[in-house]
Amino acid sequence: MARMGARDELGVANKSQSPSNRRHRFEESAKSLAKSQKRNKPAVEGGANCPILVEGKRDVIALRNLGFSGTIEKLNRGWDQSKLIAYLYEKYGARNPIDGGPSIIVLMDWDRTGGRLQRSLRDRLQSLDVTIDEELRTVLMKAMKPEGRTVESIAPHAYLLNPLIESYNEDE
Question: I need a surface site. Which of 8, 44, 55, 128 has the fewest CB within 10 A?
Answer without folding.
Answer: 44
